[in-house]
Amino acid sequence: MNADANGQPLNTHFNRARRADRDVAEFLGLAKGVLADGIVTEAEAEVVARWVAAHPDAGNQWPISVLAPRLGRIFQDGIVHENERLELAEILTEIVGGTGGVVVGEDASTSLPFDSPPPTLVWPGAVFVFTGKFAFGSRDECQRHVALLGGSCEGSVTRRTTHLVIGTFGSRDWVHTSFGRKIEKAVESRADTGRPIIIGEDHWAECIMRAG
């Protein structure tokens, strides 16, 4: 039996989770360094991709779990195009400024109307509405994953809506944006009827990964 320095049995699951948390915190520092001058060069994109490949314990944890496939698509042809560098810069900016605090356990924005604690998602029979922009991928891609698990999606909040998912890029200053009206409608409906459930992309994406 493997033991630590004090002769106690190793809890490999706990140690793996602790390494993942440490790695994500390290990644946030890396992302801030890459973004220090406001741009992402091809060399910096390669640094980010190498870091993700070298830290498998963080691979199933948000935000690495959704960043890794995006990096795979960016490097698929072996060339990092300008639009891909801009895409990566936007993703890293939102991770650092939007969800980074949530990942490392700091306070998130108090203006977000997420259900707390975030519930376990049940897919069959559920009706999802997405708002904002998503680090996971395009809205069509997000909807496709819901459909594969037995749920359905609609474009606006109605009485049928069971879940509203707010994208990472739609999480900050949501009250002052056009999609904020959709969120406000959901908040009003939830106050009256108890639904829809309102969750962030990070929780939704983690549930998708576990279900897949």
Keywords:
212 residues, Rossmann fold, 49% helix, disordered N terminus
Walkthrough of the structure:
The two termini are 32 Å apart. This protein has seven helices and four strands. The protein is elongated and about 50 Å long. The chain has helices spanning 12-34, 42-54, 64-74, 82-103, 139-148, 180-193, 201-211, and strands at residues 127-131, 152-153, 163-166, 197-200. Residues 1-6, 8-12 and 98-111 have low confidence and may be disordered. It is of the alpha/beta class and 212 residues long. The chain folds into two domains: 12-103; 127-211, Rossmann fold. Helix 1 (12-34) packs antiparallel against helix 2 (42-54), helix 1 crosses helix 4 (82-103) and helix 2 packs across helix 3 (64-74).
Blueprint of the fold:
Elements: H1 12-34, H2 42-54, H3 64-74, H4 82-103, E1 127-131, H5 139-148, E2 152-153, E3 163-166, H6 180-193, E4 197-200, H7 201-211
Parallel strand pairs: 1-2, 1-3, 3-4
Helix pairs in contact: 1-2, 1-4, 2-3
Oligomer: single chain
Shape: elongated
Query: Beta-sheet strand percentage?
Result: 5-15%
**How would you write the strand order of the largest sheet?**
2-1-3-4
The residue fraction in helices comes out at 40-55%
Task: Point out poorly predicted stretches.
Answer: 1-6, 8-12, 98-111
Distance between the termini: 32 Å
Q: By helix and strand content, what is the structural category?
A: alpha/beta
The secondary-structure element order is HHHHEHEEHEH
Overall radius of gyration: 19 Å
Structure summary, number of beta strands: 4
Number of domains: 2
Major sheet description: 4 strands, parallel
